[in-house]
Amino acid sequence: MRSKRSRRNSIIVILVLLAYPVIANVMILTGAAHVLANIKPQKLTMSWQSAWTILPGHFTVSGLELQSTTPRNQFGLIVDAGAVSVSVFSLFSKTVDITQAEAVGVEVQYAKVTEETQSDSSATKPPWTIKLDGISATGVRKVTIQNLTGVDDMAFLGSGTLDDLKMSIVTKGGLMQIDRAVGTMVINNQTGAKNHGTPLRIDADLSIASHRPHQFKGKDKLRFFTGTVNARGNFASIGPVSFLPDKELNLTTTGEGDLEAHLMIENGELMPGSHLTFESESLKTTFLQFEATGNGTLKASVDPERKRPVEIQIDLDEFQIAESGSHAPYLSGSDLDIEGHAHRLLLYSQKADGTGALSFHIEQGRVEDVRHYNKFIPPNTGLRFLSGSATTHGGFSIDNGVAHGLIEIAGTDVTLSARNREIEADFHLSANLSEGDWRTRVFRLNNSSLRLDNAQVSSEARETDEDWWGEVEIERGRLVWQKPFEVSARMHLAMRDVEPLLHMFRDPTKKKSKVDEFLNVKNVDGRMLVQSREEEIHIDPLHIDSDGLEVISRFSLSRDTADGSLYVKFKKVSAHFEIVDKSPRMIAFGGRKKILQEVDLSRLDAQQ
Asked: Least packed by Cβ within 10 Å: which of 67, 147, 170, 554?
């Protein structure tokens, strides 16, 4: 009995195998298979030029075009010729199990559906499981990616191969993973690139850990990637890539150029041994509150022997710098070096932990219009640049939020306006910043100075001599880096004589008086405390004691006026003045004891 039953089953199997190719190929030739494949065109459309099958689940096809749409994703595929093996019996358990597939001449399109839609009836139906194993392809000529959050649309044209793909995915927002994807792509044409230079070759051996794709957007999906990627050739854009875990350091790059990279990735993190070099004629870099563009090189590497294993070096030979939010450069120059350091480099998103470091150095820079610096000058000083240019060099560094640096700015034949007077001068500013907190923009000022040379003050009525000089040295102070700056500092004052200072307050139309004898005192030295706050600048006290001349004063400057007290002694003559609305009025001769009741000179020696 058993032998008869076994014989009967064998006959049935043989009859099915014999009947299958006839029935299946008749359905293909008559178009019935096409109708079945497109029974739900809103989810799946499929067409082919020719197809045939001999064994159940094994198909050979040419001119295949497929479009699959889910509530979240859209997938398109074009195959010139190929063969695929599908497990027929697994379809009964809602599983598409493709155990082998080979394709020649392939185009792939993936797009994120911008507005997810899903009917209530579809939500109640169980999902399908799709399994792929032993998938290969040659002649991959086009890959298109669209609508990914935080990623520009991309299209790559070239020639590629897929050597081995093993993956599984569950529909309706289920889990997806790729056990292995090995392939090569030589890209001749990239969206957004000039496509000059050597075609880009990418070799990849990757896996993607199990996750639900709809829960992660754009580059955030890279947290599941592990494997190696090698790339060499012209690359459309290196970014924008954020390198450091301190968002305020704002170190990013973008641009087209020549790329050479060996990346070792583990769960979306670059591992030791990874290195990258990118050369571009239009490398755009943001750092701190600046945007720099120019011909340069980016180098990045991961070395566990360093204090911070991740190092990024950006060198721009010729560059232009604009402030963030403004595309109009105000500074140009040569040799801009930027360095960033971090403990880790995550490809998907650097966590803001405040442990990064950044430094930059400008070897030679030039500001064509010195009026750019007006935004940093407190308006209450009444001081503004009118014309001229300036050169600058120096550097700045931030480590764990602690900042310091030295910036030098110099200008020749610069014109300024000050309280209805014009000043022509050469100037040199040296700002030594230390003990800074980059988050609050508060810095300590030490050994900083501002010097004027070849200065001349002029008004409608008269002019001072052309060869006046003066210098202010900051012994110790505090700077708040904002627009405008806020400064409080103890300063040493040195100048040729006091003529320009008197000219700033004196009515130039009046004849010279006894006070003009003060102009004969040369090489004047003094000290003062300066504080800029809100709408005023306070100088309290000011003390000059030099070669028979003594000046004791305190006054406040606002946008249009000056008020305060002044004591002046020259040789045996002294007088006490009151300054009201920028006009000095003599109260009496003498008055040193009285001015000292208003002005506390001991503050000049107090510790700040």
From this structure: 147
